[in-house]
Every structure is written in structure tokens, then in C-alpha cells.
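Example 3.
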Amino acid sequence: MAKLPDNPDVLIMGHPLLFQSQRQVTIDEIHSDEFQHNLKVMKQSQFDSIGIGLAAPQIGWEVRVMSVGISKENHARYPKAPYIPFCYWINPQIINVSEETNWTWEGCLSVPGMRGWVERPVAITLAGYDEHGQRKEEHFEGFPARVMQHEYDHLNGDLFPMRIDDKNLLVPHEAILHQEQWAESWPTENARNTERGQLSSDR
Ligand code: ZN
């Protein structure tokens, strides 16, 4: 395992590390100084980038680790999103998903300047480990469930544009700042009327 530099770049779509499935880590590794250092770097990178979540491969760390957290300081990218306490998930596994799905505007630090109208399950149950190597399991619904699924995708080499089948559902970030100027019902009525950080039960 490599020790990360203090200010790693966030990798941008096209970089091979973002398209790879990452490896699990051992409990011994979690307890190592290098791993703990990398966790701190990851948290700092997430907050410096005003991200609401980050996956290890986005900063060149090739392991199954993700961090999530929305606070007053970093909710600018999703002003309507609820607050989520900061947490790490190590070796996360989605052990249950709801049949019901919803839609929201997703963005990604590795896909700058773009937003996509993406469908995913409403609720999930996540199992994994925390930064102390303690096993944990948690049920998420709504926006937190959405963020977890987005970050989890990164650990399998998937970026949100790969989940969009209609090119009309992919827009420039600039456009999403002016939704009120969009043509009526474009690209769908719900997409037009749902703000960043809000969810819609229909396409
Ligand atoms: Zn992302």
C-alpha cells in the first residue's frame, strides 16, 4: 500500500484507476499508520473539494474505502441535501436494496462540469468496517442512500454517466444553475422541477 501525498489531485474521468474494481483491505492494514494517514488525507481532500463523498480511487488510493458527510461547510454542491454525519466505510457491501427506485441530479468530483438524472434504489443496507476496524451495518434511505450508492459504484469502477441511457438526461453543470429557464417539461417534468439534493419518485 502506498502512502498518499498530503494534497493528492482528484482524478478525472478517463484516468484508468477510475475504471477499475478495487481490492478489499485487511483489518491489520486498517490499523497501520499508513492507512490511518491515508484516511485523514481522504477526509481533507473531500472537504477541500467541497465534495459530499469521496471514494479512495478518486485520489489514487487503490482500496475499497469511501467517505461520506454533508455539513454546513460542504453542502454548496447540493444546497437542498440533508446533513449527513461524516463517516468512513471500509470494504463496504450493499447487502440489501429496495425494489422501489427514485431519481435525482448527480454530480461527481471526477466528472466536473456535468450533472446527470440518475435512477437508483430508494433504500439500501450497507455492511462494512469503520476506521477502527469495527464491523458496522446501517440502513439508509433517501439522499444518504443515494450518496452511498454513488461512492460504492466508484469502488467497482463505475461513474454516474454509465448509468444514464438517454443523452438528454446529462447536462452541463451551468445549466442546472438555471433550471427555471429550461423549456417546459425538459428533459422530463420531474427532472426540470427537482433541485440538486432533492429526490423524485418518477423519471
Ligand atoms: Zn463520484
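The first strand starts at residue 53 and ends at 55. Helices lie at 27-31, 33-48, 143-155, 173-176, 189-193.
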